[in-house]
Design goal:
CATH topology of the largest domain: Rossmann fold
Distance between the termini: 101 Å
CATH superfamily of the largest domain: Resolvase, N-terminal catalytic domain
Strand content: 15-25%
Radius of gyration: 35 Å
Shape: elongated
Helix content: 40-55%
Number of helices: 15
C-alpha cells in the first residue's frame, strides 16, 4: 500500500530544517518495517499547528487523499481538534513512530485520537496562558525584553536613557507644547539628521506623534497596548507624567486635526517674517540642547528658523526687540495715522470670543448625547446650527485680523500703547505696515541688526 509522510516543526531556530529531516528519516524506516511505499513527503517547517496559521503542505496532503499517513508523532500532524476532524474524513490509517497506530477507520480509534488531540490542544492553551502571565509579570517588574524603544538603550536586563534620543524627544515635546506644528519639527529634525525611531531615513508627522504619545516615556508600564501602571521609582523617564498628560491632551484634541482659527498665535514674528535665503516662512523654534565643554547640557535661546531651508536661524528676542523698536519709533511720528487703513479693532476679539463659546457649546452637546440627555437627531441639528455660526465667526477672524489696530497707536503715545497690545493686535499691525526679512549670517556670530531687513508697505 502507498503512503505519504508528514513532518513539521514549530520553530526552526537554525533555518537548516534539521528537525524535519530527522523526522522524515525515522518515518521512512517505519514505512519500510510496515511494508509501505512512500510516494510523497509533505513538510511544514517552522510553522506552529496551534495558531490557526495555514500549513501549505498539510492542506496539500489532505487534498491528495492518501491511502495512509506516517508521522513522527500525532502532535506533529495536528494539535487542534478541528484539524483532526479533517484527517478523520480521509478514513485512512495514521501510523506514528513514537505513538503507535491511529486507526481512524473505527469508532474506537477515532475516540482515542480525539482524546489525544483534546489534551494536546489543552496543553498548548495552558502554555500560552502561562506565557502571557509571565510577560505581564516581567512588564510590571520592569524587566525589559525585546527591542528597546526610541529614547532608551539596554544595559544588561535594564533599560537606561539614550542621551541623544531622549534629548530629541524632550525638545520635540517642548516645541509641540509651545505651539509648533509636527510638520515643522520633522523638517528641523531631518535637517539636523536626527536618527528616526524606525528604519525610515526621514521623519514624518505620524511617526513623531506616535512617539510623543508613548506612555513609556513617562515611566508608565505597557503590555499589549494597555497601561498597567507605574514602573519602579528608579526606572528611567524621558519626560514626567504631567508632561505626558499635557502632550496627550494636545495631540489627541480633535480641534488640532481640523485646525482652529480661534487660537491666538504666541510669537510676534512666527509666520510673518520671511527667510532672506529662500523666502520661506520663519517659524519660532525652541532652543536646541547642546553639550558644554564640561559635559553638561545647556539649552540655547529660542530662535526663529526658516521652515523651508532651515539654513537661516536668528535669536528670537534680538529680532523681536529690533522690529518692535523700528515700528514703535515710526508710530510716534506725527504722520503715523496715514499708515493705517480704517477698520474695526473690536471685531477680532469679538469673533474669537464667539468661536470659544461655540466650541464650548458643541462640546456640551456631545456630552449630553453621550449621557442620554439628547438623541442623535437632536445632536445633529444642534451641531449643524453651531457649526454654521462658527464658520461665520472664523470668517470674521480672518477679516478682522489685518485691521486690528487700536486708535491709541495714533495718539502720540505709541510706546505705551504698544506694550498694552495683545499679541494678535501687535501681529496685525506688523502685517499691515511692514515686511520683515531675516538675512543669512555666519553661525556663532554676534547679532547684527543689519541682517534683519524691515521694509515699509505702501
Amino acid at each position: 500500500m502507498d503512503c505519504v509522510i508528514y513532518t513539521r516543526v514549530s520553530l526552526d531556530r537554525t533555518g537548516e530544517a534539521l528537525a524535519v529531516a530527522r523526522q522524515e528519516q525515522e518515518c521512512r524506516a517505519l514505512a519500510e518495517r510496515l511494508g509501505l511505499t512512500v510516494v510523497h513527503t509533505y513538510t511544514d517547517n517552522d510553522i506552529s499547528a496551534t495558531t490557526g496559521k495555514v500549513r501549505p503542505d498539510f492542506e496539500a496532503m489532505l487534498k491528495a487523499q492518501p491511502e495512509a499517513i506516517i508521522a513522527w508523532h500525532q502532535d506533529r500532524l495536528l494539535r487542534l481538534t478541528k484539524d483532526l476532524e479533517r484527517v478523520i474524513e480521509l478514513n485512512v490509517p495514521v501510523y506514528t513512530v513514537t505513538a503507535g497506530t491511529l486507526d481512524l477507520t473505527t469508532p474506537a480509534g477515532r475516540a482515542v485520537a480525539r482524546t489525544v488531540a483534546a489534551w494536546s490542544q489543552y496543553e498548548g492553551e495552558q502554555k500560552a496562558t502561562r506565557q502571557v502571565a509571565a510577560n505581564v509579570q516581567r512588564a510590571v517588574s520592569g524587566v525589559h525584553s525585546g527591542r528597546m524603544g526610541y529614547g532608551y538603550r539596554r544595559e544588561g536586563a535594564a533599560a537606561v536613557l539614550h542621551f541623544d534620543e531622549a534629548t530629541t524627544i524632550r525638545s520635540a515635546v517642548a516645541r509641540v507644547l509651545d505651539g509648533e506644528s509636527l510638520r515643522a519639527i520633522c523638517k528641523d529634525l531631518d535637517t539636523q539628521q536626527a536618527p528616526t525611531p524606525g528604519r525610515g531615513a526621514r521623519w514624518n508627522s505620524t511617526t513623531l506623534k506616535q512617539l510623543l504619545l508613548r506612555p513609556s516615556l513617562a515611566g508608565l508600564t505597557i503590555h499589549r497596548g494597555q497601561v498597567l501602571g507605574h514602573a519602579h521609582a528608579d526606572s528611567p523617564r524621558v519626560i514626567d507624567e504631567d508632561t505626558h498628560e499635557r502632550i496627550k491632551a494636545l495631540l489627541t484634541d480633535p480641534r488640532r486635526r481640523s485646525g482652529n482659527p480661534g487660537r491666538a498665535p504666541k510669537y510676534l514674528l512666527s509666520g510673518i517674517a520671511r527667510c532672506g535665503r529662500c523666502d520661506g516662512v520663519m517659524a519660532r523654534a525652541i532652543g536646541r540642547m547642546t553639550t558644554t565643554k564640561t559635559g553638561g547640557v545647556k539649552r540655547q535661546p529660542p530662535s526663529y528658523v526658516c521652515s523651508e531651508c532651515y539654513r537661516v536661524r536668528r535669536k528670537q528676542t534680538d529680532v523681536d526687540a529690533l522690529v518692535e523698536g523700528i515700528v514703535v519709533g515710526r508710530l510716534q511720528m506725527p504722520d503715523a495715522a496715514q499708515l493705517f487703513a480704517t477698520g474695526d479693532p473690536a471685531a477680532l476679539q469679538e469673533a474669537r470670543v464667539t468661536i470659544e463659546a461655540l466650541d464650548a457649546r458643541l462640546s456640551n452637546a456631545a456630552d449630553m448625547f453621550a449621557t442620554g440627555g439628547i438623541d442623535g437627531g437632536q445632536l445633529t441639528r444642534i451641531s449643524e446650527i453651531l457649526r454654521a455660526d462658527r464658520a461665520q465667526a472664523a470668517a470674521a477672524v480672518e477679516a478682522a485680523l489685518p485691521a486690528a489696530v487700536p486708535a491709541e497707536l495714533m495718539s502720540g503715545q505709541a510706546a505705551e500703547a504698544w506694550v498694552a497690545l495683545s499679541m494678535d493686535s501687535k501681529r496685525a499691525v506688523l502685517t499691515s505696515l511692514v515686511t520683515v526679512t531675516i538675512l543669512p549670517s555666519g553661525s556663532g556670530k554676534a547679532f547684527n541688526p543689519d541682517t534683519v531687513r524691515v521694509t515699509w508697505k505702501g
